[in-house]
Amino acid sequence: MRSRRALLVLITLLVSATILGAFRLVPIDSFALRTRTKIVVEDAVYFNKDKPQEVQRENATLFSLVRNEELDGMLSSINYVETRFNKDYNYDWVFMNDQPFSEQFKTNISSAVSGRAIFYRIPEQYWEIPSWIDKAKMEKSMDFLANEGVLYARKVSYRQMCRFNSGFFYKMPIMDNYQYYWRVEPYIRFECDIPFDPFQMMRTNDYVYGFAMALLEDKKTIRKLWSTSLEFFETEHPEYVSKSNSLKFVTHDSDDNTFGSRFYNLCHYWTNFEIANLDFYRTAKYESYFRYLDKTGDFFYERWGDAPVHTLALSFMEPFDRIHYFANTGYFHNPNVDCPQDPDIYDKLHCTCRPAQSFSPLPWSCSHRFLLADEAEKAEVAKDNQRSTVVNGE
C-alpha cells in the first residue's frame, strides 16, 4: 500500500514538473490558468482563446479606445456585438488606453469576448499634449468655446482622443497585424442581426471605408478645418485629389467648380462606428494631410474631431464606390439610432429598435445626402461613358 502511494506521489510530481516546464517561458496568472494563456509582447497583453478553424475570417480586428471606468459601458457594447455578429466569427478585439488596464477590466472583458482580447497601452508621446502647443492660448480658446456652449469645450482629454484617432491609432505596432478594423465605443447597441461579415464585404468590394450614420458637425469646433484642408489639397498637394473624388457629399458647389468655390456643408461620417481598411491611413498622402493639420495646433486650439478629419480625407482622396453605407444594422449611439424602415427587413433581422425614431430621415442627418450624391455621381459617370461611346463611334 505504501509503495503504491509513493508511486502515485512520484507520478504526480513528474506530471507537475512537466506542466510547469511547459509554461516556464510564458507568464501566467490565476485567471489565465482557468481560461487562457496570458502572453506579454511589448506593450500588448493577449488573452488567447481557441478559434473554430472552420470559420473563414478576414485579416481584421474590432477596436476600442476605452478607459477602466468605462468597463460597464464596454461590456454592454460587447454583448451587442457578440450577440448580433461576432459570436459566429470570433474576431480579435484590440482595446487601447493611455493608462494601464486594471486586472478587473482585463478579466471581465476577456470573459465577454468570443475571440482574442488584446490590451494595449498607448505610449505617452502619442497621447500627451505636444510641447509646441501654447497652453495659454489653448486655455483661452477653451474658455471661448465654453462661452459659446460647445460640447466638451474644456476637455483636454477629448482633444487628445480626437487627435489620436485622427493620426496615431493605426500607427500602434499592435495594429500592424491587421488590414481592417471595426471601431466600437462603450454603450453603443446593434439592435438588428448582422447576418454577414462586414470585413469580407469590405475586401470583396474593395471598400476603404464603411459607416452607419452621417450627420452635421458643430461649425464652432472646426472654424478653420475646411480652409486648412483647401490649402493642403489645392496649393500644397493637388496631386492627392482623386479625379473621381466624393466631394459632392461634403460641399455646396457654385457655378465656378473650383476648390475655392466649394463650401463645406458640415456633413461627416460618424466615426464612433467605422469599418475601414488601415492601408488608407498608412498612405503617404493621408500621413501628409494629418501632419499638415496637426502643425496648426487646432486639434487643441479649436476642437477638431476625428470624424470631419476622416471624412474630408476620404472626400478628397477616394471615390464614392469605395465608401459604403452599412444600413439596417439598428446601430445606436446616444442619442441617434439608424433603424430599418422596411418591415420585411426589420423582421428578418430580428430588430428591436423603433423605426419611427430612426435618425436617417431627420434634417440633421447626412446619410440621405450621401446616397443622393452617390447616385448623382453614378449618373454622371454613366453620361460620360455614353458620350465616350458616341465620340468613339462604338
Automatic annotation (TrEMBL):
GO CC annotation: Golgi apparatus; membrane
Domain of life of the source: Eukaryota
Membrane-related topology note: Single-pass type II membrane protein
Active site positions, chain numbering: 274 (nucleophile)
Pfam families in the cross-refs: Glyco_transf_15
Keyword DNA-binding: no
Protein name as annotated: Uncharacterized protein
Entry similarity comment: Belongs to the glycosyltransferase 15 family.
UniProt entry keywords in alphabetical sequence: Glycosyltransferase, Signal-anchor, Transferase, Transmembrane
MF terms in GO: alpha-1,2-mannosyltransferase activity
Gene3D superfamilies, per the entry: Spore Coat Polysaccharide Biosynthesis Protein SpsA, Chain A
Compartments where found: Membrane
A GO BP entry: protein O-linked glycosylation
UniProt KW Transferase keyword: yes
Organism: Eeniella nana (Yeast)
